Each structure stands twice: as C-alpha cells, then as structure tokens.
C-alpha cells in the first residue's frame, strides 16, 4: 500500500500499473491521483472515447465494466476505466444494487486479468474520519496497487493551500498561511478549497490579514452547533449523528450540547418570524443582538431550510428531551440521537 505522493512520483516516471484501488477520507485527494494517471496516459482530444466511468452504487452487473475494459482504445495505446463509489471494496456493505459480496468476488477475480491496453481504477471514500482500510482492501493490496489517500499535513498541506490562493490570483503571506492551515480542523482538500474561496471573497481586493482569517474561521461553540443543526435541516440523519458523536468525542457534555441546540433553534425561529414579517438583516441583528453580519447571514440561510412549524416542533423536542434527562435515569446519548431523528422526521 502506497500513499498518494508516491503514486504521483511513479506516474511522473512513467511507472503505471494495470489496476489501482484508491481508499481514504479525502475524495479531492483521490480524484487528483486518478487525474494524474488519466492525464499521463490519454490524449485530451480522445479523452471521451478512452475514459469510461461507472458509479459503483448504480451497477446492476459487472459485465459493462468488463466490456469497457476489453474493448480496445481508440487512437491510443491505453484506455482508463474508473469505478467510483465502489463501496463493495469495503468490509461493510454499501448501497450498491449488486450485493457487496458478489461485487467484490467478481472484481477480485477480474483484476488479475485486466488487459494490457487498459488501466482499471476503483475508489471508495471512507464515511468517517477514523475509518481504516478493511480486510478486503488488504486482500486486494496483494494483487494490485492500493493507494491510501491520507490527510496531508505540515508543509505539504501549506503548499497545496497556497496553490489554491494562487489559482485565484490571491497572495497570502507565510504567517497568514500557517494561521489559516492551523484553523482547518478537517484536512479535507475539497472543504479547504471552499474555505479559501470564502476568504478570497471576504477580503476582495485587500491583502489577507490574520484578523480576517480569525474572524471567519476561529471555531466557537456556536460554529459546532451550526454544524450539527445544518445536517438536521437537510434531513441527513447519519451526518448529524456523526457530528454529535464528534462533539461528545471532543469532550462536550450532553446537557451543554442540548442547551446549545435549543438556543440555536430558538434563534432560527426568531429569525424565521422576522423574515416572514419582511424585516431586513440590520433590523434582525439589532433585535436579536447579533454582532457579526457573517453570523447573521448564516442564521438567515439556515432558517430558510425550516418551516415555522418545524422549528416550533424542534424546540418542543429539545424541551422534552431536557426534561427526560433531568428527571430520569435515561441514556443521555440515546435521547440525543432520538431528538435528532425526531427533528429530521418533524
């Protein structure tokens, strides 16, 4: 098993194999590895004819993949076949229409016989930050090249982030770059690139300062609760439960999390009522004592994802959960999970 940087060095040297399996939690990093292979092998003029992609979760049969691999490339020595979201390579069963066991068995057999004119690539993204390669991936590592796309850190991360600013024609000094990278808790390059875009829009034509970075990205309890309520508004139960587990893992006490969620729903309710009464942002900030325009924008954006009825219901659920936790020996974590699921069903 190699890392993404070893892969890129191998590709630069022209050392390319017939089959690759990518895994990791950073999809952007995985895609960059895939693109390095594709761009090295294929002529851009014939890219569409020689680069075939399949969504692993939508495959009814593995036959189309085999047919694509067996078909000769057009005006090229090589072709590339990609299966993304190949959840069947993980030990836990995914959402594929094919059974994960059957899919994995077919792939395991075929990767030993990929024709020389084809490069077959599979990748799957870990669902959680602490997920690791399972037995299936280690089994494939004995047959083909497996690449683990780990989070990048230190100078590698700073170099990549600096390039994001340069692409946007923006200069960031060394100290400001270090501050920015230190505040990126999750080294997911897709997320970080979005944050770079946000910062560039925020400063506009000005130079980037440490105060700009801290204003936008210094995490507070409010930010954590926003991150929890947001997937609830989008009806993403698994993601919301994941954020809850992260908060507990970081040492936040459940009664405190509950109080902050209740406060957030109350704020959203008041913002929603104000918006329906056609009040502007400045009036809302004054009435609710919100000091930051950015925080107000976030509240307004989040409130639009709920109806007033849903927000009332969410506040009632918080109060009921608080009463249960205080008055009986219930499992606090279970009650919080029920609160989140009920608020989503709301």
From TrEMBL:
GO BP terms: DNA-templated DNA replication
UniProt keyword list: DNA replication, DNA-directed DNA polymerase, Nucleotidyltransferase, Transferase
Pfam families membership: DNA_pol3_delta (PF06144), DNA_pol3_delta_C (PF21694)
Recorded superkingdom: Bacteria
This protein's record includes keyword Cytoplasm: no
EC number annotated for this UniProt entry: 2.7.7.7
Keyword Phosphoprotein: no
Every DNA polymerase III delta N-terminal domain range: 20-149
GO CC aspect terms: DNA polymerase III complex
Catalytic activity: DNA(n) + a 2'-deoxyribonucleoside 5'-triphosphate = DNA(n+1) + diphosphate
UniProt domain DNA polymerase III delta subunit-like C-terminal: residue ranges: 223-342
InterPro entries named among the record's database cross-references: DNA_pol3_clamp-load_cplx_C, DNA_pol3_delta-like_C, DNA_pol3_delta_N, DNA_polIII_delta, P-loop_NTPase
Gene Ontology MF terms in the entry: DNA binding; DNA-directed DNA polymerase activity
PANTHER family: DNA POLYMERASE III SUBUNIT DELTA
Annotated family: Belongs to the DNA polymerase HolA subunit family.
Name the record gives this protein: DNA polymerase III subunit delta
Species per Swiss-Prot/TrEMBL record: Clostridium magnum DSM 2767
